[in-house]
């Protein structure tokens, strides 16, 4: 099962990724856009498309869930922001999820 260091290593392995602070939380961006945030223990919050989010929530209930709670967070969840309980994922699944989020924001020059 994956851990916090796996999240960092896999995110930073994606082309053009860097770790930054975003609202006092370790986050990962490509270009100028954030695609992953480590705010809650045991979870990484990923910026996915709403359709990808719906498919993943259906396929992995309890592991993948939309961001919820309060008007602002519910809006973020509807926009595709998604919590992933990374400690229940193997490294291959976590890498796929991070790459999916990264692909939503990576600059075209990185070969998407």
Structure overview:
There is one protein chain. The chain has helices at residues 4-12, 50-59, 70-78, 91-105, and strands spanning 17-22, 25-30, 33-37, 43-47, 64-66, 81-85. It is α+β, with helices and mostly antiparallel strands and 112 residues long. The protein has a single domain, classed as Aspartate Aminotransferase, domain 1. A six-stranded antiparallel beta sheet has the order 1-2-3-4-6-5. The chain starts with a helix and ends in a 7-residue tail after the last helix. The model has no long low-confidence stretch (mean pLDDT 91).
Mean pLDDT over all positions: 91
Distance from first to last alpha carbon: 29 Å
Which overall shape is indicated by the principal axes computed on the Cα atoms? globular
Number of strands: 6
Topology:
Elements: H1 4-12, E1 17-22, E2 25-30, E3 33-37, E4 43-47, H2 50-59, E5 64-66, H3 70-78, E6 81-85, H4 91-105
Helix pairs in contact: 1-4
